[in-house]
Amino acid sequence: HSNACGRTSSRELFVLTYGALVAQLCKEYEKDEDVNACLDRMVLLSKVHLWFARNTFTQQSFILLQVAFKMYLGVTPSVSCNSVTGNEFSLILDKNPLVDFVEELPAERASLCYCNLLCGVIRGALEMVHLAAEVSFLQDRLKGDAVTEIGITFLRKPEDRRLVITT
Predict the structure, then answer these.
(1) Cross-referenced SUPFAM superfamilies, in alphabetical order (predicted)?
(2) What is the pTM of this model?
(3) Domain 10-165 belongs to what topology?
C-alpha cells in the first residue's frame, strides 16, 4: 500500500513497525504472557488535546477513544454499552489495521494477544483523564472471532461532570 507519490502512509508504517516489534518480543520472551504484558505496558499516547464541554465525562471517554483510533489507526470503533451500571463498555473493530499483514498466529504462540498494545494505550489514555479502567480483549479476529472487541471496565464510577483538558 502506498499513496499517489509511492510513499508509505504513517498508518502503514506504524502497522509494519508494530509487526516487527511483536516478532522481536516473541524472540526475547519464551512465554506469550510475558509478550502480552510487555505490549500492554507500552503507551504511545503522550498528550491528549480535548475539549468537550457539552458531553458527560463518560461520553467524553467514548469520544476520546474513537478519535484516538481514527487518528492513529484510521478506523473508528463502534461502542457497545450493555452495562446496567454504566461502568462497562466495548469498542468493536470490524477491521483491525494492526493485523493487516498478519495471516495467523503460529501454533506455538496460540495464547499471544498480538494487539495487546491497544489495551495499554486505551488504559493510558483513560488514566490521562483520571479514569482508572481494566482493559482486555473479549474477541479477536486473529483467533477466529468475527470482530475485534475490546472490553473496558471503569474501576470506579465516573462522576457525571464536565471535563476540559489542555496541555
Answers:
(1) Ligand-binding domain in the NO signalling and Golgi transport
(2) 0.65
(3) Muramoyl-pentapeptide Carboxypeptidase; domain 2 (3.30.1380)
